[in-house]
Design a protein that fits this description.
3 domains; Lipocalin
Amino acid sequence: MTPDTPSTPGTPETPATPQAVTYLGVISFGDTLAVTLDAPAAGQVRIRFSDSAFGLSGAVIGHYVKNGNIYTVSTLEADSAESPPAFVTALLGAVTASFTVSGTTLTGEITGLPKQLGDGKLSGQVTASSVSTPVTAAELAGTYTFLRGQSTYYTSSGNLQVQYGMGGQMRVGADGTVRMCQAGPYSDTCSMGYAGTLALADQTRYPGAYTLTLGGKLWGQVFPLRVNGVTSLYLDHLQLDTGGNRITGTGVFRPAQTLTASQAAGQWVCRQPGVSYADVTGLGIRAALDGSMQEETLTISDTGQVTSAGTGQVASLTLNQANNLLGFSSPAAIPGTMYADWIVPAVPPSTVTGLRTQVFMPLDENSMAYYAEVTSQPTDPVNWTFLVQGTCRKR
């Protein structure tokens, strides 16, 4: 038998170098940012900040470890081509980031970011898109339900002045005209209503984005994002009040729907920024974001009961209503939202228990946006309630 002739090994293929991809969007405490994977080189990530109420600007670069579609970022340093302010570079060692990519969408978290002024540190959830070709206003036309958090910070101290949480509806016309009903269902004559426009933003700075103007004032940039066949709008809200203080926050707008309990049923992992309660330096409320992220698992039944794995509490969901936080609780019929009121233990010497609100808006079958009141603990030096925005993902 003649043995087979050994084959000559060929030249092994060189792995393709990943192409840099930029995702533009918002971080939930109220800033615009761009995340570029595999830039300035393969295996690196560049995070660029802009339109910040907290003094964040410039860019930082880190290395990532990829596990499936999850990118964990470490060793952040200033980008010498566009260096951030000194107060950022001094504390970069405490900043962490992780991102998940699905199609053209990037989501994730950044924690431990410093502020230019004021107490505390920043943490938030990132939602961004790599789609740079804008959809037309006609494609965005329709009625949207939204959840929105809004915080005002003193310009003099950088500390918190006041917060609001709102669920409402906004109608977008095919010509780009809009009307927002801030704390109620859409109507042409709603109270707390603003008329305005949604117009293409500067496509050099904000490719794919729109600019929202309401009541004759610029509110910020809007980033359309399509996930699982649903186009949602993400607003980075930034403007000044009449006293020159910065108003900031984000809003999530989803095409209006009517919820049933079964749509939200399941186990959800919910994450939100951590809060600390203490004296602050200068003018402001004695509470601030602490730079961390907190996690809680919620289980929602087919009958609309929600159970917290952390506390064991069970609350009833009120479907198609949002409890607006306007300095007082103001429930309103908002299709596509739901809320629960959780019991807050009494803080000695008081023996009276309280309630804290959590308002949800399912975005698709696997994710929900929400805002929630976070109350101080009996061991904290301040008895106060802080508003945070978060995201739940189905387990």
